[in-house]
Amino acid sequence: MYYRSQCCDVDHNVIQLDKQDDILSRLLEVYFRQLFDDRNVSEANKKALWGYYNTYFSEGFELGYNGESEFYDADLAKALKDDIATFSAFKETSFRTQLEEALTLDGAVVPWSEFNKKAAELNVEYNQRWLKTEYHHTVATANSVEQWKGFEADADLYPNLRYNAVNDARTREKHKELDGLILPMNHAFWKTHNVPLDWGCRCSLEQTDEEPAALVPEIAIKGVFKDNAALSGKVFGEMPYESTMTTEQVKEAETNAKNFPV
C-alpha cells in the first residue's frame, strides 16, 4: 500500500468519520462476528460492506463532478463511477482477507478476544485512516475532471497548462520541481501527471497562453496517480490494494465488482 508516504495535508492521527460512522460500525460488528463464528462472510455481508464503500466514494465524487456541471459528460461519469465500484470491491476483498489471516496463529484458531483486537486494529487502518484518504482523493480527482473539461472548452484561447505547487513546508520535493512547468494541453505529460499527483496533493493546473517549456522533467509517479481521470475514465490509475493480493483474490474482487452493482 502507498498510504504511509508523506502527504501534503492529510492528518495521520486516527480520523473520526462523519455521521455514517454508526452505520459502518454496526455493519462491521456483524461482519466480524460472522467471520469468526462461520470462518466465512456471506455474500450479503460482502455486498453490504462493498455498498458502503461504493456509496461513500460515489457521494464524494458527486461533490466534484455531477450533472449540474456545464461540462458534464454522462459516459465519462459512468466510467469513473464504475472504477469506484471496482476499487470498492478490491477494498472489501483486501480487508476481508486480512481479517481471515487474523483468525489463526501458528495453525490454531485464536480466541474471540484476540481476533476482535486485531480486527479493531485493521478497522482503524482500512476504515478510518485509509478510507478518509481515499475519499479525499476521490473528491480531488472529481474536481480535476471538472477542471479538465473546462480546459478543453477553452483550449483554442489557452492551449497550454502550467503546473502550480503550493511551495510550503508540506509540499513534496518532486512537486516543487514541477512548479511553473508549462506544456501544451495535448502533451503526453498530462496523461500521466495530472493533479492530484499523490495522496493529499494540493497542487493545481492553470490554463495559459504563455510559451511552453523546451524540456520536460522526469518525475516518477506512483501507479495509482499515473493517470488523468478525464482522459482515462479511471479515478484510480491502478488498484492500490492489488499489490498485496493473490491472483485468486484479485479475480474475486474483479468478479464482485461486476456482480455487486444493482
Report on this model:
With 262 residues, the chain is mainly α. The protein folds into two domains: 21-151 and 233-259, no CATH class; 156-231, no CATH class. Helix content is 52%, strand content 6%. It is built from eight helices and five strands. α3 (74-101) packs antiparallel against α4 (112-153). The protein is elongated, with a radius of gyration of 20 Å. The chain starts with 20 loop residues before the first helix and ends with a helix.
List the helices and strands and how they pair.
Blueprint: H1 21-38, H2 43-64, H3 74-101, E1 104-105, E2 108-109, H4 112-153, E3 160-164, H5 173-178, E4 182-184, H6 189-192, E5 204-208, H7 229-232, H8 247-259
Antiparallel strand pairs: 1-2, 3-4, 3-5
Helix pairs in contact: 1-2, 2-3, 2-4, 3-4, 3-8
Question: First CA to last CA: what distance?
Answer: 29 Å
Radius of gyration based on Cα positions? 20 Å
Low-confidence stretches: 4-19
Sum up the overall morphology in one term. Answer: elongated
In short, what is this structure?
This protein has 262 residues and is mainly α.
Question: Which descriptors apply to this entry?
Answer:
5 strands, 8 helices, 262 residues, 2 domains, elongated, mainly alpha, two-stranded antiparallel sheet, single chain
